[in-house]
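Note to self: keep these together.
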Amino acid sequence: MEKIMLDDRKARLIGIPLVSIIITFIMHHPSFSLYPDWAELWRWLSTCFLTTLFLWEGNRYIFIKLRQLFPNYSQTTKRLIYQTLVSLFYTFLATIVIDYGYCHYILDKPMSTIFKGFKIGIIPTVIVTLIYESVYFFESWRQNVKKTEALARENVQSQLETLKNQLDPHFLFNGLNTLASLIDEENKPAQAYLDKLADVYRYVLVNRDKNTVTLDEEMQFLDAYIYLNKMRFRENLQVEKLISPQAYQQQVAPLSLQMLIENAIKHNIVSKEKPLKIRILEDEKGYLQIENNVQEKKTFEKSTKVGLQNIINRYKLLSDRQVEISNNADYFKVSIPLLS
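Structure:
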């Protein structure tokens, strides 16, 4: 989740004195008159100000820390439970300290009962909680709308990149089915090739509008895509997969693995003398690594890296964990986070 900056200086400068005055008036307005006891009024006002200051700043700190500990929307219930318990405990301690310290020893004023001070302290605690929760809720909602719109744009770009220079996928998919019916049933390799090609286009049609799919779905699609390329490159293209069964239930951005495999084939020599070796493996940090040996083609066409940048942009919107890229003269590796 994107970090929400808390700029509340004006709210604190205005809110703390204002809440102090309001609490003083609420608790002691029957004793006000045209000729008030100014010394007594000052004692109450200073006590309320000190109480509000301590409780506002303390509960603000609690709010910020618990937001850091439980940043996800799914953790909201747990965070609110902890926040309520810690805030009430802090309010209880703060009111005792103010009663026993400031009121009794500095103002030489009779101490209120513990629960009377606590009941007064609840007022600024509730106000502070409502203010910060409301601000955070609306800011989270605004960021979520912004993120959804950006993700939609990235998905459109992904679709255009995937289908660029290709026929309309619906038309081509239907054409493949027609072609399959015309191929001799004895020609098993041709039938198998067409089946895999149809699987590839079926996956694109079904999942192109989704934000995420399971790794299991993506790998089934990728197997079909690799099969098509191995028919072309034979054993010159070698793909190794080392993935745990649990990882297959995690989520990835659709077509992201295919783009990475396509980039590896596009920019590297694939030959009997120099086979292209691609490894897909899961690491201990919860990332999926796609690694290939580097043997760049001698070509005048410069890579635009649009596909890779699209993957990076999509994962920025899907997760706090970013796509990691590492390369040297021997290998090129892209690590994408597995999403829960």
